[in-house]
Specification:
The chain has 250 residues and is an alpha+beta fold. Helix content is 23%, strand content 36%. It has two domains: 3-137, no CATH class; 142-249, no CATH class.
Amino acid sequence: MNKKSLLLGAAAIGFLGINGLQAEAAIDETVKNIDIDFYYQKDRVRIDFKQDKKGKITRSDIRNDIKGEKFRKELGEQKIREMFEDVDFNTASNNEIFMAILDYIDAPSGSEFTKGTFNSRFWDGKKTFNFSDKEVLQSGEVTNNKDLRKIDATVYYGKEKVDFKYTVLNKSISSSYRNTITGERYKGLQSAAKVNDLLKGFHLRNSANYEVNTYLLSGLEESTGGAEATRIVLRAEFTNGAKRNYDVRL
């Protein structure tokens, strides 16, 4: 997944609240530990970061079964800092943090995130950020679009296309994403995170069609290599019963 296009921010995903680090030092001396454990079927990604009160790193290990990578000490610390370098923990959405992790893992198209946990603690004892995959699946929330119940959209680029679906049913998420230009295909949480990235900047129900088109095309520009869109088909339903349907040729 592409880092610039994804940070972003999930998805579609409401985690627990967070307060924390400053943007100029995404991981500063206030952080006690960061513990990440993600699974893609049988493949595991494990990240363990710890430091003492003086900011001395005591552990910085990465194990990525998907890529067959293992990093420790200075190189592990570098990779972990790079993972969160664009995240301001004071203002970032929970989804942005989740997406930063997915972006680092960079699982190949077609792989499926099956379960995972993220935990962090801070030396003042007050700042914490924790989520599990169950909390993610039960949240059913898209940033700026909490009233969205269902969306089915296709953006055409001549003979190629990007299409995505996102549905919230009984507070559970069902989602799929496909980009025929790059060959990317995602389902579940990874797809929901991609959809959230596309929809995060505006409120779908209240925006004019040209605003929706602008946001979607801008969000897809990098992942489509700047290709020229020729048509957008969008159908959406909201929790208040409202619907939005349009088919426009560009």
